[in-house]
Amino acid sequence: MEALRGSSELRAALRQQSHLDSRLRDSFVEPESTWLPSTPSSSETGSSFSWLVLAAALAIVGALIAVFWNQGPSDAPVAQIDEAQAQGFAVVHRVTGEQSSHPAGATLAGEVLTLGGGYAEIHFYCGARVVLQGPARLEVESAWKAICHEGSLRADVPPAAQGFRIHAAQTEIIDLGTSFGLSVEDGNATVEVLDGEIAIRHRDEQELRLQTGQARFLPADGPHRSAASTWASEKVAIPQEEPSAHSFTRWQTYREALLQRPDLIAFYDGQTKNSTLPNLAPRTG
User: Fold this and answer.
1) Considering the chain, what is the average pLDDT of its residues?
2) Cis omega (within 30 of 0) on the bond before 135?
3) Distance of alpha carbon 20 from alpha carbon 15, whole angstroms
4) Which residues of 151-187 are buried (b: 16+ CB within 10 A; e: fewer)?
5) Is 187 helix (H, G, I), strand (E, B) or coil?
6) Other CB atoms closer than 10 Å to residue 40's CB: what's the count?
7) pLDDT band at 134 (very low <50, low <70, confident <90, very high)
8) Is the Cβ–Cβ distance between 190 and 218 less than 8 Å?
C-alpha cells in the first residue's frame, strides 16, 4: 500500500488492470463457448475461467508493484522535445530568370531578395502572393509587410490576408482584399489597383483610397498625383506556369528528397491504395 501511495504510475497501472478484470467479467456471457473444455457444467466452467482471469490480473499487478518498489521514484529530468516551427515570413515559390539572390524554396525573414532579371514568385505566410519582375529589390520585413526598393511587382491578396502592406517611395500601401501593381524607379513609385481597393498613406498626407482602374504617382519628395492606369497590366504580367511534365518531374525529385529526411513523421502524396491513403514516412524513430 505504501508503494501505491507513493507512485502515481503504479496507481494508474492498478486501475488499468482492475478495469481489465471488470471488463473480462462482464464480457463472459457465452457459457458454452466452443474453445472452452466441455467438462463439468457450463456455470462451473465460467466460474473457473473468471477466477483464472482474476488470478492473472493480480499476478500482473503484483509484478508491477515489485518493479516500482525496487526502482523507487526517479529524479531523472524528463527530456524536453522542442516543437518544430516554420522559419521566415515568406517562401520563394519559383524563379524564372537570372541573378536571383535566393533560389526557389528559400525562406525570407528580414532579408532583401534581389533579382537581376526575369520573375520571382513569393508566397507570404499571411496568404498574399507577390510576383516580382527584375531588376528588382524586395525586402521582406514580416509575414504581412514588405518594402519594394526597386522594380515592378504585382500583389494578389485574398480576403484572409487583408491588411497586407507594401512600402515604397515614402508611401504605405495597405491592401483591402485586392490585386494591385507597383513600380519603383529612382526612388519614385506608381501604384495601380487591378481589382478591388487599396489605401495609400503618402508621406504626411491624408489617407487616400483607390479602387479598380485608379492609379497614383508617388514621388519621394512631393505630393502624390493621378497617373495613367495602363502601366501595371503592361509591366507586371504573371509568368506562365511550367509545363505539367516538367512540374511533375520536379515534384518527384522533391518527393524523393522528402522521404529521405530522418525527421519525417507523416507523408501523404495523394495516391490511394485499396481505398486508403497510406502514410509513406519511413517511421524510423
Assistant:
1) 78
2) yes
3) 9
4) bbbbbbbeeebbebbbbbbbbebbbbbbbbbbbbeee
5) coil
6) 10
7) confident
8) yes
- Name the pTM for this structure: 0.55
Own/partner long-range contacts of 261-270 (Cβ < 8 Å, ≥24 apart)? 263/84
Judged by DSSP in three states, 7 sits in coil
- Span 144-165, average pLDDT: 93
Q: DSSP H helical segments within the chain, as ranges?
A: 2-6, 8-27, 42-71, 231-235, 244-259
Phi-psi region of 192 (alpha: psi -120 to 50; beta: other; left: phi over 0): beta
Over the stretch 31-56, which tens digit does the pLDDT of each residue have? 444 444 444 544 555 555 556 656 66
| The three three-digit cell numbers of residue 14, written as one number | 492498478
Q: What residue type is assigned to position 1 of the chain?
A: M
- Is beta strand 165-168 parallel, antiparallel or unpaired with respect to 145-156? parallel
Cell numbers 532583401 label which residue? 112
